[in-house]
Amino acid sequence: MDVFFYPRNVAIVGATRNPAKPAYYITENLVRLGFTGKIYPINPNANEILGLKCYPSLEDVPDDIDLVISLVPAPATLNVVKESAEKGVKGIVVIAGGFSEGGEVGGELEKKISEILRKTGMRLLGPNTLSPINPSNNLIVSFRGMKELKKGSLAFCFQSGMYEPKLGWIFNGLHLGVSKIIDVGNKLDVNEVDVLEYLSRDDETKVIALHIENIKGDSRRFMELLKETVKKKPVIIVKGGRTSMGAKASLTHTGSLSGGSYTIFEAALKQAGAIHAQTLEEFFDFAKVFEFLKPPAGNRVAIITLSGGEGVIAVDCCEENGFKLAELKKETVEQLRKVYPPWNIPSNPFDMGPCIEFHGNAKVCKTALDSISRDENVDCIVIQLPAFVPPPELDEVVKSFLRLKEAGKPAVIWRATMGRQEDRIVEELERNYIPVYPSVERAIKALGKLYKYKVFLEKVEGKT
Q1: Helix (H/G/I), strand (E/B), else coil: 257
Q2: Which residues, 6+ apart, have CB-to-CB distance to 15 below 8 Å?
Q3: Is the peptide bond before 349 cis (omega within 30 degrees of 0)?
Q4: Rounded Cα gap, residues 84 and 15, in angstroms
Q5: To the nearest 10°, the Cα dihedral for 199, 72, 110, 64?
Q6: Helix (H) or strand (E) holding 437
Q7: 54-74 confidence digits (pLDDT tens)
Q8: CB of 300 within 8 A of CB of 322?
Q9: Could you tell me the pTM of the whole model?
Q10: Confidence at 258, pLDDT banded by 50, 70, 90
Q11: Cβ-based burial of 42 (10 A; exposed 0-12, middle 13-18, buried ≥19)
Q12: In terms of Cα–Cα distance, which of 127, 225, 134 is closest to 184?
């Protein structure tokens, strides 16, 4: 599997000079982002592409080749695989669709390719895939013109190119740091078992997020691997094809029917200790909280909100997700009193709204966040962003939120306005690994998964 993430060189069969074609960006991304290995464009009708010498065929490349990226249509792919095998290539990525998902002819193509792989030991990713991505060496196989790849410890595995249009959003909208991304496509060779085993041993990966429609490898081996892996690093899983119609729909783009009982699959994930996401929204929400934060020491939560009504909703969400309200220490309450309105208010949940009216955003945020984050009775915090921060106060408010990292207690934030000024604050917080969510429900559910994973580990280790 290393050949897909750490190739010394990459040959691109079907490389093009035409920026109007999506395939152009396969080469362009590697050049612009500075892939650390050598790049060999293969095109018999070009001498040069993006400043790189172009070769008529794989055979004409003077060096050994680690990884081939095949951009040619399905009918021409068999020849590329044969040429790769003759050249002694270690791995090949087949981007084209139209194989087993396309009917009998495509299925026969896959069989012929499989026979070559069996005889030579060459590994194949796909067909019908767009990946891999490795920020540590700026390797990227994508049609998206990317400006940068943010390195982190979160690895994604997809059974679909559905992530591809979201690639810019993953790095720039969610502000996620990524160790690796792989799309297994039709899983002709490399499948979810191979990927899970590889990522479980990968030192650069601390969190694994898997999108699965069907298990094409050994399902018993997959569950054994899953049980062992979650003891070392969290594994987040979302499954497509939960319904009968969804299962049939998966056949049209992967060539494999998503079979088996979803209820049994769900129970198996729970038993293994995996973090189960019901939706794509949850999948990315959970991935963010596990990438950004360490689990809380306990379930005592402090809530800071802008209105009493939303505070009540936050309390409901906390109880539903395994938390209880922290009883703040006397010294903390005394600090909070300094920014109370002219009447008495509860300290947890703490309603910043009326306090800000009388004392301003900067003073209230500094007092509330500093004192509550240092309270020994508080394990974690959920906070709503201030709704309207005058520009003179903006820097001080951001600094107060950034100091949450110094306290060492996990904190999740939810947005109040979804406005442009808030976007600036969110970007600054998430660049510093403080996760922000669109709603209180999503913020607390994500934090709850983080806490429940800690409880699971303690049970495994015999601490509870």
Answers
A1: coil
A2: 23, 26, 27, 41, 42, 43, 46, 49, 54, 71
A3: yes
A4: 16
A5: -60
A6: strand 436-437
A7: 999 999 999 999 999 999 999
A8: no
A9: 0.93
A10: very low
A11: buried
A12: 127
